Amino acid sequence: MTEAQKLFASIEALVPQIAAAATPAELARKPDDEVMQALQETGVFKAFVPHRFGGLELDYATFVEIGMLLGTACTSTAWVTTFCMEHNWLLAHFPQQAQEEVWGHQPYFLAPGSISPTGEATIDRDDFILNGRWQWGTGVMHADWVMLAGRVATEPGTEAPPELRMFMIPRSHVTVEDTWHVDGMVATGSNDIIANNVRIPSYMSQSVALMSIAATEGANWHNSPTFRTPMIPFKCITAASPAVGCARAAVDLFQDRINGRSLWGSGKTQKDQTSAQMRLGHLTVRVDNAQREMISIANDLQALGDRTELTSAEERTALRIRCGYVVHAARDIVRDVVEASGASAHRLEHPMQRLHRDIHTLACHTVFDLDIASEIYGQILLDMPTSMPA
Predict the structure, then answer these.
(1) Confidence check: pLDDT of 376 > 60
(2) Which pLDDT does position 273 carry in this prediction?
(3) Residues 112, 145, 39: CA angle, nearest 5 degrees
(4) Which domains can be identified in the chain, with CATH numbers?
(5) Are residues 143 and 131 in contact, defined by beta-carbon separation less than 8 angstroms?
(6) What is the dihedral of CA 82, 84, 85, 86, to 10 degrees?
(7) Positive/negative CA dihedral, 305, 310, 315, 320
(8) Is 228 exposed, middle or buried (0-12, 13-18, 19+ CB in 10 A)?
(9) pLDDT by residue (tens digit) across 316-326?
(10) CA 138/CA 370 separation, integer angstroms
(11) Beta strands in the chain, from DSSP E residues, in sequence order
């Protein structure tokens, strides 16, 4: 059995525990502590730590398989897990000194990672001074580090736009504010992060533009296919795989539900309905297709890392759109399941209503905005300047 297979099997064994903790985690508005500890014990957060630091450099297909599996148990827990895995991948693009400072003292880290340009950084000799507030701090409730983006102020009179950089900061150096009051993905605990004049050594940062195309010092140092893939498509598969797991869980619940759900006035169960039989057949094929496409995207992204040349904007944007279609398909599957499941599926003790809320919140993530992504893609195909970075 390979290391990837062992990891997958160990996570599969945790699925009942994660599912049982899904409701308490939602009530607590953060991931379950015991579940997070159990996940750490599997070694899952070493998935994208480089080999030279004892990590796995996991293949992308197994990565999305893990995300989809966890998504069948708890969409929020899956989301936090895949993002914390991916954020270790981000550090592999930082300067060598930063990697040695972190992974030289711990086998992996847990951190939120925000590339939203809501922070401002100034240069002070060999350091940066960072200020700002970042929303959507996925992973912050169990974090020991945070990864935050900020625009670096340019000298007065300089025409160049401010550079966007990602900063690696100990969790103790920032403030977390309890703002996560939402109707879906409640158990992620993605609260706001505030930095107030945080001093950061220059080597604990990296250009987001260079990370986006994997043209970083860290990627060159490792010279590994794992770290030669572009950032945004990798973030897309990170975010999309829990959505497919959520859809799979909804279809499985529907199959179980129609076996025992009585139809008013008919004396029959829903499974005796031809329309329910047809709906189950359609839903199963649709979720199977979403899962296959998710793995296909992962393999295509992996193939970009297997070559030495940098990716094109066209390749990056096409992968982003494909992920968007998968997530929209998963959302629609869950919607159609709920539509056919009766009013009692909306009771708070029924998991179906949580899946419905979670998938609709998840699908609103900016990387799945097909209007934006398709506009950029069309501009690229027409050899026009893009309205946003690709």
Answers:
(1) yes
(2) 82
(3) 70
(4) 3-106 (1.10.540.10), 113-206 (2.40.110.10), 231-261+270-381 (1.20.140.10)
(5) no
(6) 90
(7) positive
(8) buried
(9) 999 999 999 99
(10) 22
(11) 113-124, 127-134, 145-152, 163-170, 175-177, 192-201, 205-207
CB neighbourhood size of 3 (10 A): 14
At 201, is the secondary structure helix, strand, or coil? Answer: strand
What is residue 134's three-state secondary structure? strand
Q: Are 301 and 225 in contact (CB under 8 A)?
A: no
Q: What is the pLDDT of residue 266?
A: 63
| CB of 153 closer than 8 Å to CB of 163 | no
Q: What pLDDT does 14 receive? A: 98
Please give the pLDDT value at position 264: 57
- Give the residue among 77, 81, 71, 73 at the shortest CA–CA distance from 19: 73
What is the C-alpha separation between 356 and 345, in angstroms, rounded? 10
Token pair of 29, please? Answer: 């508005």
Residue 45 has what pLDDT? 98
- Nearest of 153, 188, 131 to residue 365 by alpha carbon: 188
Question: What mean pLDDT is reported for the chain?
Answer: 95
Spatial separation of the C-alpha atoms in residues 84 and 209, rounded to whole Å: 21
For the stretch 101-129, pLDDT in tens is: 999 999 999 999 999 999 999 999 999 99
Task: Identify the band that residue 155 occupies on the pLDDT scale cut at 50, 70 and 90.
Answer: confident
Are the C-beta atoms of 180 and 174 separated by less than 8 Å?
Answer: no
The rounded distance, in Å, linking the Cα atoms of 128 and 179 is 27
The rounded distance, in Å, linking the Cα atoms of 382 and 390 is 14
229: tokens are 């893939």
Residues 376 and 387 sit within 8 Å (Cβ to Cβ)? yes
Report the relative pairing of strands 175-177 and 192-201 from DSSP bridges: antiparallel
The pLDDT assigned to 153 comes to 82
pLDDT at position 261, please?
65
